[in-house]
Amino acid sequence: MKKNKISKNWINKQHRDIYVRKSKLEGYRSRAVYKLEEIDSKFKIFKNSYTVIDLGAAPGSWSQFVAKKVKNSKIVSVDIKAMDKIENTIQIMGNFNDNSIQNKIKENFSEKVDVVISDMAVNTTGNKNIDSIVTGELSVEAMNFAIKMLKIEGKFVSKIFMGSTFNEIVSLAKKNFKETNIFKPQASKKESKENFIICKYLRKYGK
Q1: What domains sit in the chain, N to C, each tagged with a CATH number?
Q2: CA 33 to CA 165: how far, in whole Å?
């Protein structure tokens, strides 16, 4: 199939996608916001005055949602890509796995944080198994970072894909959190293998 035909098919799908249309009408940067909205509605993730770290934040719709919903919040949005400014957020450009970036994140908080969220995924290669493995590794890295950063009653939300790393991620979550759930929002595309892992209440403080 020619590239321009693929592009036309993608554009047509975007036009038919109710969540794409809704995000444009409501001023959000991507349809992904409605996944977080569903997760929050079902699992009660956010409260006013919460401190939040958004990993892989670009283009920024999750940070937009938190900034809008959570009054008196403090949000640090982190991504390797540059983002347009979002009101009431602090943006850090870089890889959250780098020690220098982690130090920059920590400098914005005087104590452990309430929530870490991650909608990170690799740029697709066309090989779903490889994409699933690499995105799974990102989720594990995000969880290990969250374990170090969260309060004992903290919450962690991350994208995961069904695949070879799925059981490893769930096992790590259950080892470190008292409550673990897997959820696929209606806003996720039916053909997508993506799910989200929702973790609450650390079994012990991270170091």
Answers
A1: 30-202 (3.40.50.150)
A2: 25
Helix (H) or strand (E) holding 56: none
- Separation between Cα atoms, residue 117 and residue 96, nearest integer Å: 13
User: What's the predicted TM-score (pTM) here?
Assistant: 0.88
Q: What is the pLDDT of residues 67-103, one digit of tens each?
A: 999 999 999 999 999 999 999 999 999 999 999 999 9
Helix (H, G, I), strand (E, B) or coil at 198: strand
Q: Which residues are catalytic?
A: 159
DSSP string of 65-115, one letter each residue: HHHHHSTT-EEEEEESS-----TTEEEEES-TTSHHHHHHHHTT-SS-EEE
- Determine the straight-line distance between the first and last CA of the chain, rounded to whole angstroms: 52
Q: What one-letter code names the amino acid at 127? A: N
